[in-house]
Amino acid sequence: MPNHGDATLPAHWGPPYLLYLGNPADDLAIKTARGVAWWRPEWCVGQYRHPDCKLTLGLPDIGMAEARARGANTMMIGTANAGGVMAPEIVADAIAALDAGLNVVAGLHQKLRANADIVAAAQRNGRVLFDARDPAPGIPVGTGRPRAGRRLLTVGTDCSVGKMYTTLALERAMRQRGCAADFRATGQTGIFVAGAGVPVDAVVADFISGAVEWISPARSDDGWDLIEGQGSLFHPSYAGVSLGLLHGAQPDALVLCHEPTRRHMRGLPGYPLPELRHCLEANLAAARLTNPAVRAVGVALNTSGMPAPEALAACQRISDLLQLPCQDPVSMGVEAIVDNLLACFAN
Amino acid sequence: MPNHGDATLPAHWGPPYLLYLGNPADDLAIKTARGVAWWRPEWCVGQYRHPDCKLTLGLPDIGMAEARARGANTMMIGTANAGGVMAPEIVADAIAALDAGLNVVAGLHQKLRANADIVAAAQRNGRVLFDARDPAPGIPVGTGRPRAGRRLLTVGTDCSVGKMYTTLALERAMRQRGCAADFRATGQTGIFVAGAGVPVDAVVADFISGAVEWISPARSDDGWDLIEGQGSLFHPSYAGVSLGLLHGAQPDALVLCHEPTRRHMRGLPGYPLPELRHCLEANLAAARLTNPAVRAVGVALNTSGMPAPEALAACQRISDLLQLPCQDPVSMGVEAIVDNLLACFAN
Q1: B176: domain CATH number?
Q2: Do the Cβ atoms of A204 and B203 come within 8 Å?
Q3: Would you call B270 and A144 a contact, using CB atoms and an 8 Å cutoff?
Q4: Of A143, A238, A243, the CB nearest to B239
Q5: Of chain B's two ends, which shows fewer C-beta atoms within 10 Å, N or C?
Q6: What is the value of ipTM here, to two decimals?
Q7: Chain A: residue nearest B206 by CA?
């Protein structure tokens, strides 16, 4: 867990952040930074851009020393480029940030900690580096032992259908109602948004369920852990991750996430998306292994590719089909899903 | 793939083996060596034991230089001890083997390649080290693309119920009938028996199905790849590995493995074993994602904990229940299962 400036503790990454954009190729390249700026604006002191950068997150453009002066603890390299390679200017900027007294975090395939110059700069400044794709050491094997507390997991018909956004929208809506609710991150962007978490697709295969047990331990405050799902039981490349995540989460409640305009499983033209009812039932059946009382509480539809009237009609159709509230978290909110969740677990 | 002594190729691990026993604590500690001696006696030149060693594989006791003189290519450290730690005498013996001109392989948690003295000895002798728990670099993400050839996968109600033995028994029986059939290893002992393979529980989670696609590529000779299963869809700690393995294998045929005296899932007293029919149907349903034509062809029962008449009765009962041949591969062979496999895929 990060600490936020207590000088008696060792340096640790975490917010407040300076969001590093550099000179990104396109909007997709700053997806992670955009997610953090969207969900945690209060953690973002500013953005660092090269002179040629055409994109913006709408944050103040500031340098590293100024960011430090304004209270930033960490520079987050939220860019992704082809192959996850660390360009020479990113290396130079990471070193400059460390020399300015910031910790540095990144989610590139190529690791900060694999670059000797960056490591040396961190050491001479007493700053820490964090690679979001490197799982913490010491993750245990899953035990399947029932644990206290309530947990909700987002599951999907496919990869990249909005599981992280849905989970964070639920956190925001529940907190606005005064419920204790905590997002538990399982992917790179989610980890930066939460300031903690495990990149569950990067752990060694034997430890998938253990990693999820570890990030959502027993709780006794009547609150909810809201666990970010990954992949899909129906994706031939990644279903193992999704199943281990489902078992480790021991979810009480599932929210099914779907993108209705998608024509095939992400990256695999030969594979159609699963039928919604079949997908939900398969997830419930698998989840019962570690929590026999699991139930579905809602459907989150990513309708960004549809006109508004069609989106509403699609939600109504799916709601009728599955007898569950169905909403687009971005354009419609998640109040109906939260209503149903709280009604299902009222006592 | 290992080469076996062609001086124009670089040194590579592989048989013939000198099996290293050292001074093991108990029979369980030499399980891997015993598996290799049982399934590949023709690859085993001898065993290396310390004077106090009470256990034997029934192989000639020879030293390292003599093993080299008799044609051994590799010393296999087939022992496991508490915590997978490499004891000082194992380090010394590994160095002596390298100095005698042998390659050295091991399946300990602690890696040969993490020990500077062992690495130096390998370098000065031009020998290679291989840690069976280290997956090869460059394993791709699974694609789910249909590939040519026929594949059989062993699946289980639990871990350690005889999946490797069953798969190897099928290979032996099919080869005796003149069928092309190749065991594909997914665990440490299997990798030493096959001389190749991937420790699928040690790959990064995103690459489970890709690893299995990689070890069982398309084949066009009408032969069978017989893929060693791992874990169980019903084991809360490891089901993710089992599901990724199932999807990557794209199996045409499944053999269900079971140990009927087991009272709960391995290591988890709170979890009963799944009912056989439910377990088989769940495996078939999940396997259909990447091979809709998958079918079950038999059940392998590990009856080592039962008297012979009971074992026969148990096989009969399960055979009637599932309408599949059911045999103990060790005490009864696998001929009825092979008969059914070949009948099911006759054309």
Answers
A1: 3.40.50.300
A2: yes
A3: yes
A4: A243
A5: C
A6: 0.91
A7: A201
